[in-house]
Amino acid sequence: MIEIHNFDVVIVGAGGAGMRAALSASTQAHTAVITKLYPTRSHTGAAQGGIAAALGNVEEDAVEWHTFDTIKGGDYLVDQDAAAVLTSEAPGAVIELEHMGLPFNRTPDGHIDQRKFGGHTREHGAAPVQRAAYAADRTGHQILQTLFQNCVKNEVEFFNEFYALELILDGARHGYADGQGAPAGQAHAARHGYADEQAHAARHGIVAYELATGKLHLFAANSIVLATGGAGRVFKTTSNAHCLTGDGMGLALRAGIPLEDMEFVQFHPTGLAGLGILLSEAARGEGGILRNNTGEAFMVNYAPKIKDLAPRDIVSRAIANEVREGRGCGPNRDYVYLDVTHLPRDVIDAKLPDITQFARTYLGVEPYTEPVPTYPTAHFTMGGIPTTLNGEVIRGLVPSDENSRVNGLSEYQTVPGLFACGETACVSVHGANRLGTNSLLETVVFGKRAGDAAAAFALSQPLPARLTRDDAAPTAARLDELRNRPRGARIASVRRALQETMDQDAAVFRTEETLHRAYANISELRHQYRAVAVEDRSLIYNTELMEAVELGYLIDIAQCMVAAAKARQESRGGHFREDYPNRDDKNFMHHSLTYLLSPASDSGNFSANRATQQQIQIVKKEVVMQGYEPMERVY
Fold first, then answer.
1. DSSP 8-state assignment for residue 424
2. 172 falls in which pLDDT band (50, 70, 90)?
3. Strand 216-226 vs strand 412-420: parallel, antiparallel, or unpaired?
4. Under the phi-then-psi rule, with left for phi > 0, alpha for psi from -120 to 50, and beta for the rest, what region is 347?
5. Is the pTM of this model over 0.85?
6. What is the mean pLDDT of residues 497-506?
7. How far apart are CA 135 and CA 101, in angstroms?
8. 312 an active-site residue?
9. CA gyration radius for the chain?
10. Quick one: average pLDDT of 180-196?
11. Which of 131, 284, 312, 568 is catalytic?
12. Among 4, 28, 454, 572, who pairs with 223 as Cys (CB 3.0-4.6 Å)?
């Protein structure tokens, strides 16, 4: 039996962005949160170093400097109106968290303490600035706990350990997949405001699997917010939790919605070597130094002015280059050292307690006296579901002859009642590379905006959303078919092959050859995926069945990443092409919208068999400029 639930707003995902959206929406509308984890286990809790805001509590700072750093850090692919919103609303957002009860570290006079972080500077790059508000090295954890407590106080309804399987838009199970967009009448030239009211109520829904019972549930709502986090699990070496399989992005893709800028993946410079577990940039913010096998502090060769506090893409490539040129450390010379041995022990204990304990626990290294082996780890997806400044999901450009080239600001079409925020979304506030501490800031600034807009849209509808069990019946049939297949490929084998392919051929350094090989391998793995089978035939707590669904999302997203990386024949931010090592503003100063075009015959599977390049369409989307002209990106 499929159970039906009716709400004004349904939010998928309970990380920082999802819960901030829920907190805002719940003050205005009947709100539910669907999450495949208990909320306080969401990956926001792994964010360590801080949240950026030009508070000026420790030294002089300015919102405009933060805006400049964000745009420059994103290698000028940042939409500058989005950067202005992020940075101008940052101080208020941080103080709001403080008022909710978040226990920030304090200065001696009682203000929120702040520290340096990579790429954040004063006076447009003159020197590093202390901009990151922090709670030791567990800032994300504290934000997650604070938001959850306030959501409980606001009586938000949580549906924990529910896996989203399908997105239903306006009662239809299939979205537009022509790479152009939605019906007439939904075009917007502005990036502000929520979508226009329709003549009828929006009939959106989510079909979800309840882990504890094995039942399917259908959640009907006028507004849906996708906030499921990133997709770092397409890589083998990653700081991302196992839950980050790009579910929201995958749901959107299958509804005919594109993903924006998926070629841009951030590799955090300091993951524990061989494991990928994150060591926060806070270590370098407090004075940690990267060293090669001669003991040289090598970042002076790559970023002479701010050295170890350069943006993450620059530091990651520097580390990878040191290793490639034979200056790596260890018996295999395959990592570098993060050295904090010169820092006072009381500073390490007070400000870096978690990451130093990680080194002791996982590598058996004592950071007081030994440098810590580190190497870049896949960390953050700059791309995602394209949205407006208020989180409205963009389906595509208005159909016209201008769609194939960048020519001023074009109109685009939104999906009324569908919103996205956090790492799932691409507002594009990070462009080609995200600055550290801007991700937690994005979750609270744009999570709040999406929640407000979702509630406003839902309340503007003339009727509540209504769906029937028939709307979920095809999903149930597909899930039963997958669960009862007699034999097939093993999920773990296909997933491992996918992750190894992405690590080897689509990571820090890329070429046409490696990307072509990755694309061919992913196409073959997609073919294998259509025949995967699960050994667990039960309904209750069938995590293997859910891993099969998640693998479909990963394959779709990996193919989008590689296709977009092949198409972008330049190097910019986190995307570095060794065969095109320079930034090319003339030909590539634009965003990419990547569509997966689904043949009708694919409707019976959780991942479409889109195995050829012709079935991926990439459309250009203009970058919003507001006064910051592209310049050489040096530090």
1. G
2. low
3. parallel
4. alpha
5. yes
6. 97
7. 12
8. yes
9. 23
10. 37
11. 312
12. 454
